[in-house]
Specification:
The protein is an alpha/beta fold and 467 residues long. The protein contains 14 helices and 19 strands. Strands 1, 2, 3, 4, 5, 16, 17, 18 and 19 form a 9-stranded mixed sheet that branches.
């Protein structure tokens, strides 16, 4: 049965344009745009008309770095695919790409199947998967080819976490060589985990056990060194590289230098590095544990370099690395030993609003907001123009955004399944009002109208920035 909706009177913002236009949605896709008040727009008829006067009409957010139900540090991320995707929708995100995990001694296929089983029938919005590669061997390398063919076109490796996800330089090089052949994109957690483990051991031996020491041992120089090494390995392999959760000015400098040299090297940062700092890690009474993530929060002076990187396109994407653990019972596992605090922050619901605040504060333009949060992540991971824009033929993933509404971020009002907010008490200007996923209302005038199982698995093509 055909269904038609019209969004009237809003300012349509994409990565490339801002236009006062009406949007016609038909059978889950954008059918047409026409300037508001013109005969073409006025002639449209529909089952439902949504008034967006005085509001922005933007593409649904694309968050390409989430960890729902991730096992880590003897516990699990507290958001399920059901609770996490519902919270994402409340925050104006309509597509996530989560990380399926290969365990050492197991195949990529086993890991991917396990994540499909977690997500299928539970998601409120559309989703895809990257593959964490923890065990590089000949069989794994062959499987990478098969996964690319079926739409899992990106593979994450870790220079951190020895004994868990860690890959050595030889394993990284082999995976990069394979991705150079099959078109996949290697995503790198770039920190020198071997050196960090030495510093952790030494800090604990000195009795330095509080959360703030998590930031002190994971030094910015060790992020920069690993970023440099990953870039050089990718260069040797002739492969593209995407560095996740860049937090340090020195790491941005490595990316900028590589890009100036014409290399296919890309960088992502996250809201926590743009808005939080080591001041949060140092909060008393173990409160700093709420802010333990890796890469860690940095001193405030790093923030200016990250914003600059986003403006100059040395950094291309802002994702959340959403990996929530409750303060009570989960973060508390590290009382008396910061190295046992589960690493991760909640944020999937806050990203679009925080980045709009960055527009209000003058860090980025409105179009750059949409570029780093919607269009570029969709292009980077092979989903554009189906996702990430408002154009004829695109999925009708659309957010009606009120740029003037005020809000105060709080765990009392958020929808993530976690007992604290990393941004508790922060005042923001701008708020999601209505969200459509493939033309279906998920958030309707600040009421949840979605359902578990609406979200569909989205196979992806290869990175659209590569020739």
């Amino acid at each position: 049965m055909s269904s038609r909706k019209i969004i009237r009177g809003g300012l349509v913002i994409t990565a490339s344009d801002e236009i006062h236009a009406d949007v016609l949605i038909e059978d889950g896709r954008i059918a047409a745009l026409a300037a508001s008040g013109t005969p073409a727009a006025d002639a449209w008829t529909a089952d439902q008309v949504i008034d967006a006067t005085g509001k922005y009409v933007i593409p649904g957010g694309v968050d390409v770095h989430t960890h729902m139900e991730l096992p880590f540090g003897g516990t699990f991320a507290s958001d399920t695919f059901e609770t996490g995707t519902r919270a994402a929708a409340w925050g104006g995100t309509t597509t996530i790409v989560d990380f399926a995990v290969q365990s050492v001694g197991h195949t990529l296929r086993e890991g991917l199947d396990a994540w499909h089983a977690k997500a299928e029938g539970n998601c409120a919005i559309d989703y895809g998967f990257h593959m964490i590669v923890s065990d590089v061997n000949q069989e794994t390398l062959k499987e990478m080819d098969l996964l690319v063919e079926e739409g899992v076109t990106s593979f994450k490796q870790f220079m951190a976490y020895p004994g868990v996800f860690y890959s050595d330089d030889g394993q990284i090089l082999r995976a990069m060589q394979r991705s150079a052949e099959n078109g996949g994109l290697i995503m790198m957690h770039a920190e020198n985990g071997i050196a960090i483990d030495v510093l952790v051991e030494q800090a604990l031996a000195r009795g330095e056990t509080d959360p703030r020491y998590h930031g002190e041992v994971r030094k910015a120089l060790l992020e920069a060194e690993a970023t440099h090494r990953a870039i050089k390995l990718a260069q040797v392999a002739g492969a593209p590289l995407y560095v996740v959760h860049v937090s340090a000015a020195e790491a941005v400098a490595e990316l900028a230098r590589a890009r100036d040299d014409g290399l296919n090297v890309f960088g992502e940062t996250c809201p926590q590095y743009l808005f939080l700092s080591t001041d949060n890690l140092a909060e008393p009474d173990f409160e700093g544990a709420k802010y333990v993530c890796s890469t860690p929060l940095r001193p405030k002076e790093h923030q200016a370099r990250l914003w600059q990187g986003l403006r100059t396109n040395d950094l291309q994407v802002v994702s959340t690395d959403h990996c929530p653990f409750c303060f009570v019972g989960q973060k508390e596992l590290g009382r008396g030993d910061f190295s046992k605090i589960p690493n991760g922050l909640p944020g999937v619901e806050n990203r679009m609003d925080l980045l709009h605040q960055a527009v209000v504060d003058g860090h980025i333009s409105r179009r750059r907001w949409i570029e780093i949060a919607c269009a570029t992540p969709a292009r980077m991971f092979g989903m554009y123009p189906k996702k990430g824009t408002i154009a004829p033929g695109a999925d009708a993933d659309v957010v009606i955004y009120d740029p003037h509404a005020g809000q105060t971020v709080s765990a009392e009002t958020h929808h993530m399944n976690v007992d604290y907010s990393a941004y508790e008490g922060k005042r923001l200007t701008g708020r999601v009002e209505t969200v459509l996923s493939r033309g279906e209302l998920v958030i309707d005038q600040r009421e949840f109208a979605g359902r578990a199982g609406h979200g569909l698995y989205t196979p992806r093509s290869t990175c659209q920035y590569l020739q």
